Amino acid sequence: MNDKAELFDQARPRLLGLGYRLLGTRMDAEDLVQDAWFRWSEADHKQIADPQAWLVTVVTRLGIDRLRQLKRRREEYSGPWLPEPVFDDMVPGAERLAEMASDLSMAFLLAMERLSAQERAAFLLREVFDYSYDEIAAMIGKSPVASRQAISRARARLRDERPRFDVDPAAHRQLLERFVAAMAQGDAKAFASLLAEEVRWIADGGGRVRAASRVLHGVRAATRLAMGLQRSWRDRLQMRLALINGQTGVLLLLDGQLRSVVLLESDGRAITGIYSVVNPDKLRGASGSCH
To answer: One GO molecular function term (predicted)?
Structure first.
């Protein structure tokens, strides 16, 4: 392997992690990284003092442009939109998994959709990838003052949406296991007891398959949906735990075929959010997790 390819491969996990957090889909992130490789392969490396910073800058600027395009498309999306889930088998190697495992919750990625493309990029570079304000200013092509302001605005908008990292993973997993058991048994009372009063359920079918066309709020609506699904599927339904977006989630299989990926948000005591990705276009990367 030549030095050019080796340097790029060393930076690739960071580039892919940045691209995914910027755009919310694995395919778009990989396209960014591929475009960065083309530019890197044609660049005069003697003029590049810091290869990784140069590559991050390329992915950031390409990502900002791409996100602006995607935002317009998502405004026309059929029903609620959720990020494409990423699976452990899609992130080979411990180093790469660690690179992508933080700040990947569905709730957090969804909250970032309210930011402008430039705010989102600046915020991620600072809060997730720990770049300095001067470095971020160079990467997004703005002054340090403008970069600080963009990050400050993003922090204000996301103040109540950051993932709750202090939630005990064991407590969260216990809620997840009880969620699976209540669904499997069709136990409405047990299911409802797991939910916070203000729980919300977001299902993304993308107009490709049947799914709730709006966000559901409250214990009653969420329980009614869960029990309706259970009655429809009954013995055809299988549920398996898998590592999804850096946390344990649930694969719902119907007649052995993946039907949905479900991730839960909790405060350690009750489930506050249910995120189900049903759009088959967003489940293609799950095949290795279903066996």
So the answer is: sigma factor activity
